[in-house]
Amino acid sequence: MALQNIGGNNDDAFYRYKMPRMVTKIEGRGNGIKTNVVNMVDIAKALARPAAYTTKYFGCELGAQSKFDEKTGISLVNGAHDTAKLAGLLENFIKKYVQCFGCGNPETEVLITKTQMIQLKCAACGYLSDVDMRDKLTTFILKNPPEPKKGSKEKKAMRRAEKERLKEGEAADEEQKKLKKEAKKKGTMASKDGNTKTSSSRKKGSGSDEDHTSPTHSQVDEKEEADDNEDDDIQWLTDTSLEAAKQRIQEQLSAATADMVMLSTNEPEKKPKAADKASENGNSFTQKTLADEVKDELKKGASAEELLSLLGLLSGSAQDKMTALFYGLFDGIEKGFAKEMIKKKSYLAAAVAQDEGSQLLLLHAIEEFCRKSNKSAVKEVALILKELYDADILEEEYIVQWYQEGLKGGNKDSQIWKNALPFVDWLQSAESESEEE
């Protein structure tokens, strides 16, 4: 399907906002002739507006009856109209009801105020555009308002419920593992006692009928369980070497978990690479050492969970680990910092998923990174905050708290706070409007 830029920006081949080219079809004859906009649903979806709005706008501008069928998705305008004419009317619709009057960005949302006025709220710059209420389409929009999107409070509740569900699942898995281990230990002790009694009875050489009576049901079950675990019992009782212990752990747990267990239980024999470096220098872990570890793991293709597991094993404060993670992910990037961060946002999302307080740690890591290492990041700090906010990695309350604490710390003249100010103002104005509504 052929695409074109939204808003008449046809000169820019890399413009990110695009929509399908209009396709029309003339149907009927005589007084019943009509123009069918075949792909009206796709166009309206690209503009984030109901298809009924665009169809009604054509009817209002052409002075003809128009109709959009919600069930079939058919858009009809009475009369024979060529594609170029309807495409020109669609451009006018985009300028009036889609594009931001401030920055020209088409990523806007239709809002209806208490005084029955229509506004366009820009998601990029936060500007509120006032629609001209003298236009005929405004009456139709007031009678058929757009469906409201889920609010930030609902999103927070959903995220918290998901976190609680994951925590409950992990706790249930741990409990199940403990029960299996306890049952296995009881089976081992029972088999040992049974073997001792059997050997003592054989030594006595008693030939009475009591020795030849059929075993009870519980004794049969106990014997079968002992037979099933016979190999494990022998290894547990006789072979206590390090290799045997590793083999048993890997059989019971996944490979990644087994490695973590062996690292934590055999620290004197095997230490992480970063620990060796720190012990040679006689100092605790530095942010640079941790960042180097992150870079090494990224070169090996480590996932977000594996990176967090590695940092959890190393020593250092929570802030040092978060800053080291950020440095390891983005150190050395000079241009297009925000775009590069979008590619690696899964690592940041996993880092803040464990605790909501981790969001402040991430914000302080961004602040230190911008202040010490990267001028490009300072210029794009508003874009960085917006991308993390849109991805539900950072929430507005933590962003505002971080900004206010930074100003109180005596850094009012810092370029970081000056560049972050427009986005923070937009957050606060959006929050106040949602509370008023």
From TrEMBL:
Give the Pfam families listed for this entry.
eIF-5_eIF-2B (PF01873), W2 (PF02020)
Q: Which residues form the W2 domain?
A: 280-437
Q: Which InterPro entries does the record match to this protein?
A: ARM-type_fold, IF2/IF5, Transl_init_fac_IF2/IF5_dom, Transl_init_fac_IF2/IF5_N, Transl_init_fac_IF2/IF5_Zn-bd, W2_domain
Where does the record place Low complexity bias? 188-199
This protein's GO cellular component annotations are:
cytosol
CDD domains per UniProt: W2_eIF5
GO BP field:
formation of cytoplasmic translation initiation complex
Residue ranges of coiled coil: none
Where on the tree of life does the source sit, at the highest rank? Eukaryota
Compositional bias of kind Basic residues: 178-187
Q: Give yes or no: UniProt keyword Transmembrane helix.
A: no
Q: Which Gene3D superfamilies has this protein been placed in?
A: 1.25.40.180, 2.20.25.350, 3.30.30.170
Q: Which GO terms describe its molecular function?
A: eukaryotic initiation factor eIF2 binding; GDP-dissociation inhibitor activity; GTP binding; translation initiation factor activity
Known SUPFAM superfamilies for this protein? ARM repeat, Translation initiation factor 2 beta, aIF2beta, N-terminal domain, Zinc-binding domain of translation initiation factor 2 beta
Look up keyword Magnesium and say if it applies: no
What is the role of this chain? Catalyzes the hydrolysis of GTP bound to the 40S ribosomal initiation complex (40S.mRNA.Met-tRNA[F].eIF-2.GTP) with the subsequent joining of a 60S ribosomal subunit resulting in the release of eIF-2 and the guanine nucleotide. The subsequent joining of a 60S ribosomal subunit results in the formation of a functional 80S initiation complex (80S.mRNA.Met-tRNA[F]).
For this chain, the family text in UniProt reads:
Belongs to the eIF-2-beta/eIF-5 family.
Query: What's the name of the protein?
Result: Eukaryotic translation initiation factor 5
